[in-house]
Design goal:
CATH class of one domain: Alpha Beta
CATH architecture of one domain: 3-Layer(aba) Sandwich
Oligomer: single chain
Number of helices: 24
Distance between the termini: 99 Å
CATH superfamily of one domain: DD-peptidase/beta-lactamase superfamily
Length: 878
């Protein structure tokens, strides 16, 4: 046996890398020795004592950092819990309404706070309590507010998927999210949720927390809390002492995970499956026997719609579904937050435009302007109208009255369909003009032929000219010429241009020319098409589309603020050229029904056949139709079609193409929206770039002079105006920096224009903003002189009186009489026939139905020819 080795304690050493264990043990034999040769004997190398000592040191080196990190994290978390403000009053339900404001400050909607009363813990059925705990947090009664296993499992899944897909939340944490946080999914928000869950657990009993949760949770169909949900789905009044059956309680307990996806009124099969999962969870948690669960699982769903007192608030039903969907998607405000009361939501809606949309899509007086379908009431539809200078939504309809579901489908953001020929201006014609290789008078091959792989698109007219001008090809929607044009510029060139304009394509789409006439794999939404056409109406610049400017909570805090963004899509010259051509589409082409007397209107129709494989002997069957167009101050997209086209759900191409009716609906809305306004026409006089770049006049240092900023409290917008000595024209880049708490943030670009005025509609009351306007050479992109800068403080509480209205940006210069399409070569057509013969089927707003051009036979749909083998290609026309 070796003698016991003496141990000499040393003063604390100077800490070095990998020497924490030396400091803690303070023993001479554990301290690191200087590097020097060590003689090892055969015996010492195999010494059990040395091996054991080495093993302990290695284990300590591994474990100590882990233990240290854990201790440090626990300390930091405890400190965060103690320092995080906790306002328990927010757990008291808000009784004030959520108010939705229009752009001019008027009230669009007042959503009453859900839940007139709160159920006590004893009023909530025991079977509902047990079903919820078994499904959402089975360790609730015995565990804490932190479920480490759930958090680690969720973190692993999130890291594996590369997204925040899992919750891992206890009931306390879910309650914290409902009351204190938004639906944003970030690590920071999750950490806050955990801390607030601990705070809730410290202040309240388990019974109180469970009652608060069940009174605040959103359960779909505008029902917040189990009292409203029981009444909505089953007509059961829990406050009056009525009871839920076991299967009813299980259905309600399964809704919090996905209230819309498990909505028993919209998706009964999914709701039934979810209910039975909850029943099995109750068995696994020991609340229920398997026999009782099996008996309850055999019960029918039994849910039906029952009215609630607060249902009467919805005065703009076609807008509401879009508003709720947009708030959830872009502002992280779920329906539970909008329905819980106390919010002020400032939108970009123009009441006159929204009123026009409401009349056409909700009122029955315009039903005859929609194409007839194979079902009563006709097909569904959607519409979105934007301000091209700001990107703000002026009016919207997420659906028609036909088959309307309260807080149901939003077709503006979700109806993804083939765009038909309405994609042509974005995918082929704009990039062709932008390339400089084509002009409006360029000749296009319009002779049907095999473009490769057996793809042979056809024009609508059997006797269409073999060659046409570019203007004629777009205005008269020639499929062959459009396909030939995309082939000439290259599929990638066209797709890259369109994707920059916000139109999504798949890898498959890039493999075939069928996309030239709308044959896309996934299609587009009305939201994407309206924003895609925006650049045509704003000198080639796209402003990011948005519905909500800001949201203020009950405490007066701004919890969401839109950050404007601008992007150049094409030159102002290309935008003006395409506008001139698409004016022809409305004047003498396929979009004549969109015309508004006295107003400049440009746009494009789109029609999509039902299906090649299922059409059979019905080539006139149509699944979808579009009109995407604009005036000098408004751009919009109208989509009409069935959600699920089938032999019993389709439109027909007789007597007129449904896209003509889409144009008619677009014209109806626009005619109503601009009523009483002086007509405006397009300024298409933008000259082509000269060889010499824009310059600043001699002895001038600034590219921008006399910059002014005026705030209008009625619209809560800042109007910038300036002068410029630039010779030859320029782009003007507008940037903005906000000052808060005495410090100014970085400047961000918020817009770009070629005129001497700009409107910023996204300011907040009480904010201080510094604007910079920089002149930039159109050709080279180089800065011209020094920028103009101005700082403006927006009032917090504007006093009486209405400030002067300084007008809005834009030039309303008449472009004069338009020219018709280029004269085609070949064929026997001498020009379009725009006369109206016979009695119009439906005069509606703005006159009767014009007869199609003489060289267009709309009684028979276009035949795009044999489609390529890739999905979705080639099934689209005008």
């Amino acid at each position: 046996m070796q003698p016991i080795r003496s141990v000499k304690l040393l003063p604390p050493p100077v800490l070095a890398t990998n020497s924490w264990y030396d400091f803690l043990w303070g023993c001479e034999w554990l301290q690191k020795k200087p590097n020097r040769p060590v003689k090892r004997t055969h015996d010492s190398k195999k010494s059990p004592d040395n091996k054991a000592r080495h093993g302990w040191k290695l284990l300590f080196r591994i474990l100590f950092p882990l233990v240290f990190v854990v201790v440090l994290f626990v300390f930091a978390f405890a400190l965060a819990v103690r320092l995080t403000p906790f306002d328990a009053s927010k757990l008291v339900p808000n009784r004030t309404s959520t108010i939705i404001y229009a752009k001019n400050g008027s009230i669009l909607e007042q959503i009453p706070a859900s839940g007139a009363t709160d159920l006590s813990y004893n009023q909530i059925p025991r079977n509902l309590q047990e079903a919820l705990v078994a499904t959402e947090d089975h360790n609730y009664w015995t565990g804490s507010s932190i479920d480490m296993r759930g958090i680690l499992r969720a973190a692993f899944v999130d890291l594996w998927k590369g997204e925040f897909a899992q919750g891992g939340s206890t009931l306390q944490q879910q309650l914290a999210k409902m009351v204190f946080l938004t639906d944003q999914k970030t690590f920071q928000r999750k950490f806050q949720q955990v801390i607030l869950g601990v705070q809730i657990d410290r202040y309240y009993t388990k019974q109180e927390i469970l009652a608060m949760y069940l009174n605040r949770v959103f359960l779909g169909e505008n029902a917040v809390g189990v009292e409203q949900a029981a009444e909505r789905y089953f007509g059961v009044n829990l406050a009056a002492g009525q009871k839920l059956t076991l299967d009813e309680a299980a259905l309600l307990a399964g809704l919090p995970q996905a209230p819309s996806g498990y909505d028993p009124l919209q998706y009964p099969k999914a709701a039934l499956a979810r209910r039975n999962v909850v029943l099995q969870n109750m068995v696994n948690a020991g609340y229920l026997s398997q026999a009782k669960a099996d008996a309850a699982a055999k019960q029918p769903l039994g849910a039906s719609f029952h009215s609630l007192p607060q249902d009467n608030w919805n005065t703009h039903p076609v807008l509401t579904n879009f508003l709720f969907d947009y708030a959830n998607r872009y502002a992280n405000l779920g329906p539970d937050m909008l329905l819980s009361g106390g919010l002020k939501i400032y939108t970009t809606i123009d009441p006159s435009v929204q009123s026009a949309v409401d009349q056409v899509f909700w009122g029955h007086q315009y039903d005859a302007d929609f194409p007839s379908g194979s079902t009563s009431g006709g097909p569904q539809g959607a519409a979105i109208f934007l301000n091209p200078k700001t990107g703000g939504v002026l009016g919207a309809a997420a659906s028609r009255w036909v088959g309307y579901a309260y807080l149901g489908e939003d077709r503006i953001l979700n109806a993804r369909r083939s765009p038909g020929s309405s994609i042509k201006p974005i995918l082929e014609y704009a990039p062709a003009i932008e390339s400089g290789k084509f002009s409006p008078s360029s000749m296009l091959d319009n002779t049907p032929h095999d473009f490769g792989g057996g793809y042979t698109p056809q024009n609508d007219e059997a006797n269409s000219p073999p060659q046409v001008t570019l203007t004629y090809g777009l205005a008269m929607s020639q499929n062959v010429a459009s396909t030939w044009l995309l082939q000439q510029i290259g599929i990638n060139t066209g797709v890259n241009f369109a994707e920059n304009d916000g139109i999504p394509f798949t890898a498959t789409d890039r493999q075939h020319l069928g996309i030239a006439i709308g044959g896309m794999e996934n299609g587009v939404t009305p939201w994407e098409m309206a924003q895609g056409y925006e650049a045509f109406d704003n000198q080639g610049i796209q402003m990011e589309a948005h519905l909500i400017d800001k949201v203020v909570n009950a405490s007066g805090q701004v919890i969401y603020a839109f950050q404007p963004a601008a992007k150049r899509i094409m030159s102002a010259q290309t935008a003006a050229t395409l506008t001139k051509i698409m004016e022809g589409t409305v004047q003498y082409g396929t979009g004549q029904l969109a015309a508004v007397p006295g107003w400049g209107v440009a746009g494009k129709t789109g029609t999509v056949q039902y299906s090649y494989g299922l059409t059979g002997k019905h080539p006139d069957w149509i699944s979808t139709c579009w009109f995407d167009g604009y005036t000098p101050n408004m751009v919009g997209s109208v989509y009409i079609g069935y959600d699920t086209p089938s032999p019993t759900q389709h439109m027909t191409d007789i007597p007129y193409a449904p896209s003509w009716w889409a144009a008619k609906v677009w014209g109806d809305v626009t005619h109503l929206a601009v009523a009483g306004q002086p007509p405006q026409t397009f300024n298409n006089s933008v000259s082509a770039p000269t060889s010499a770049p824009a310059t600043v006049a001699p002895k001038t240092q600034n590219g921008v002079n006399h910059l002014t900023a005026t705030w209008d409290s009625t619209t809560n917008a800042v109007q910038l105006t300036w002068q410029s000595p630039v010779v030859g024209g320029a782009n003007y880049i507008i940037s903005r920096a906000a000052t808060a708490g005495g410090s100014t943030g970085p400047a961000q670009q918020i817009g770009e224009t070629q005129i001497l005025t700009f409107e910023d509609p996204t300011v907040q009351m009480g904010g201080v903003y510094t604007y910079t306007v920089q002149a930039v050479d159109v050709q080279t992109g180089a800065n011209i002189g020094a920028p103009g800068t101005i700082t403006l403080a927006v009032q917090s509480n504007p006093g009486g009186g209405t400030p002067a209205n300084n007008g809005t940006a834009g030039n309303n210069i008449s472009s004069g009489a338009g020219n018709g399409p280029g004269v085609p070569t070949g064929g026997n057509n001498t020009g379009p026939n725009n006369s109206i013969s016979g009695n119009p089927q439906n005069p509606g707003v703005g006159g009767g139905v014009p007869v199609p051009p003489a060289n267009s036979t709309l009684g028979a749909p276009e035949n795009p020819g044999t489609p390529p083998s890739s999905p979705g290609a080639g099934n689209a026309q005008k």
